[in-house]
Amino acid sequence: MCGIVGFVGARDGVSILLEGLKRLEYRGYDSAGIAVVGEQQELQVVRCQGKIAALEERLQRHPLAGATGIAHTRWATHGKPSDDNAHPHRSGPFVVVHNGIIENYADLKSALEQEGCAFSSETDTEVIVKLVEREWNLGKDYLQCVVDTLRQLRGSYAVVFLNEKRPHELIAARKESPLILGLGRGEYFLASDVPAILPYTREVVYLDDGDIVCASREGFVIESLDRGRREPNIHQIDWNPVMAEKAGYKHFMLKEIYEQPRAVIDTFRSALDFDKVQVCLPDLRLSKGQIADIEKVFLIACGTSYHAGLTAKYMIENMCKIPVEVDLASEFRYRAPLMTDRTLLIVISQSGETADTRAALQEGLDKGALCRAIVNVVGSTLARMSSGVIYTHAGPEIGVASTKAFTTQLVALYLLSLQLAYSLGRMPQEELSIHIRELLEIPGKMEAVLSGCAKVEDWARQYMHAKDFLYLARGILYPIALEGALKLKEISYIHAEGYAAGEMKHGPIALIDEDMPVVVLMQRGALYEKILSNVQEVRARGGQIIALIERESDAKVGGEDDQLVLPEASPWLSPLLFTLPLQLLAYHIAALRGTDVDQPRNLAKSVTVE
User: Fold this and answer.
1) Model-level pTM greater than 0.70?
2) Is residue 222 scored above 60 in pLDDT?
3) Which residues pair with 500 in a beta bridge?
4) Residue 306: HSE in the Cβ half-sphere, 13 Å Cα cutoff
5) Strand ranges inside 14-79, DSSP E
6) pLDDT of the residue at 412
7) Cα dihedral sign for 208, 393, 365, 27?
8) 3-state secondary structure at position 495
9) Which domain holds residue 587?
10) Are 172 and 181 in contact (CB under 8 A)?
11) What's the pLDDT score for residue 554?
12) Enzyme catalytic residues
């Protein structure tokens, strides 16, 4: 949930750490801090409540200098946002930054207090640095101090230690929280995510659970808790710093909305065999025999990714004739789900680090299910835990509210549906060729929607002061209505609800009056007349209609100002087109209301704790 940066080298560490924090501010932004060791081996720490800008102001008043240091931007879990609770935390010659939750911190803290330790914060993190100092005072080797401390912790962590007595060395470790090592020439970087180090290196090592890395100017080694060494697997990152910048857009979210056609292309490009006109997902590692044995599919996710799973249920059940259940990861393992080795469990996550989704995946692994993942981050925990993976190739997504991660997840799930259906013999080659051709046409149609959405800004100005929104749809667009409502809630702080339109008369109709904007998603086909009837019911009660309809629909919804006409598309791909205006509507309303679009209150990009 929090953002960690570490640097060891010969350059000015403060500027590198501060820049890294800015690139990770989407991971948390209620407090921040930096610790460095100067040339005189003096440990200096500056931290404060608030965003990175507040830390910058404090550093101007209390400048730091040093070539080895660590930094942190926080999203509160234990203890309210405050200067005292901000990281790094110090005890004796040590400071530490931490992402995760130490579940047994209360017991450890009580034991330390009985030994005479005094605590200055409400955090679980301070326990870690107190334990390291205690081990150090016993005369142990530095690395052994860290190892023995980690063995006492129960929970999740990514930690980086700085020792005033070892000024040119960092020690870091991870368990169930992301941490990467960046490789430079005579310098090394540690970070929670790739954007923090993109300006300095593209060579990274994704640390595994249980890894401990010691980095100095002379090099690095990776060990485990049992002190065994492992050879690093070095990845070359193909992102560049420009990809992680706003590129002239007012907000990252707006930039990422307009990046979606390219992200969709990147996602399907490597998954299609154009010579044979087939879907090719080798990293999924599902044999025809395994596919033939599948009796049930579980799609597990949280938030926006959950809506992608709900959309995919329509695809898979229709194309593959296999029953699909879609579960919230936070609920899945607590209902004793029934799984066998003929169950296909797919977890969906942008970051690949979502705590609840990791736990759900572990449940599937424990019960012998075929476990696979759809993630955006190569080398992430879910990708490594799973027996196979589909990468979405959305690139860095800095805005907290997910946009291109969602649409690329839809594409990945569409590709999965096609491969399963074809392998099962339930989709002939001719039909598969049609689906692939329709997929190839989608990026151009997405571009057309994005270039024709000026009307959405007018709607935003008209309805920016509304207190409530209702989103209605049927069939495969119902999850898109849920996603549209979620986007509006996330970034504009307006209450919004998505409903299956057929359920409107079972409660929500009581809310409709002349002050209620009602967003309606209308797809051609068997359900069109039914949802048109729902629209008339809304209009009869004075509700304000915002309609997204497909070209060549059988009837008009209302006046030209009430509707936006979208290009025709396959029923299974039209969710990609309907999603875009909903994202833009939420964005423009939020921007007009002056909210923090990229970093909405109380939210963080990657939920890495339960």
Assistant:
1) yes
2) yes
3) 473
4) 17
5) 31-37, 43-49, 68-74
6) 98
7) positive
8) strand
9) 454-593
10) yes
11) 47
12) 2, 605
